[in-house]
Amino acid sequence: MFRSLTWRIVAIGLVVVGGLLATGSASAASPTREDVGVFPYEFSADCGPYGFDFAINVQGEETVRVATFYSADGEPVRIVIHSTFREMDTNSLTGKALPFRGLLVRTLDLVAGTRTDVGRMFLMTDPGRGIVIQDVGRVVFDAPFHVSFEAGHHEVLHGGTASHLDELACNALHDN
Predict the structure, then answer these.
(1) What is the pLDDT of residues 108-141, one digit of tens each?
(2) Phi, psi (5° rounding) for residue 144?
(3) Which distant-in-sequence residues (6+ apart) come within 8 Å of 128 by Cβ?
(4) Staple 148 to which of 59, 100, 142, 156, CB 3.0 to 4.6 Å?
(5) What is the 3-state secondary structure of 28-80?
(6) How far is Cα 10 from Cα 77, in angstroms, rounded to an integer?
(7) Where are the domains of the chain?
């Protein structure tokens, strides 16, 4: 479900890093800030693989801002990406709809080679049941997909795949 947004954040980060490394010392030592924009999205996720006879219809938007910090000699040393999303996920058969949202601050430390994600990455609540999907806190990666530190509740992270998030959402939208 959120897989397209996750990859969009990664792609935006790579484009920003690539552009900064190409420009190098052309920038001043003060930080630069860019409002990348608001990205509306809409798609469906099939719940069949998880034993349900419905799809999730997703409609939402993501907002992305990027700040880049430089060394005294103008080299980029840190990129901070602020990403928020708000969406409504709806069961295609019953019409049951749940809000899904997230707020992520991703810091790419270009000197240390680490990525730190902080925030309420994924949060879905069902008024009748409470929190049904939760991935919140702080995670530090010292290599792709290698967690060197974590704090908080990370059920999505530990699922290992984007399809795990789809499965959690399908379970949340299934009428019991």
Answers:
(1) 999 999 999 999 999 999 998 999 999 999 999 9
(2) -55, 125
(3) none
(4) 142
(5) CCCCEEEEEEEEEEEEEEECHHHCCCCEEEEEEEEEEEEEEEECCCCCEEEEE
(6) 18
(7) 3-173
In the chain, how many H helices and how many E strands? 2, 7
Tokens 């052309």 -> residue: 26
∠ Cα 134 139 140 (to 5°): 165
- Give the pair of three-digit tokens for residue 75: 């080299």
Strand order in the sheet with 130-143: 32-46, 55-70, 76-91, 97-109, 114-126, 130-143, 146-154
The letter for the amino acid at 120 is R
Tokens 């954040």 identify what position? 9
3-state secondary structure of 96: coil
CA separation for the pair 101, 54 (Å, rounded): 22
Spatial contact of 55 and 61, defined as CB atoms under 8 Å apart = no
Q: Whose structure tokens read 């990406």?
A: 81
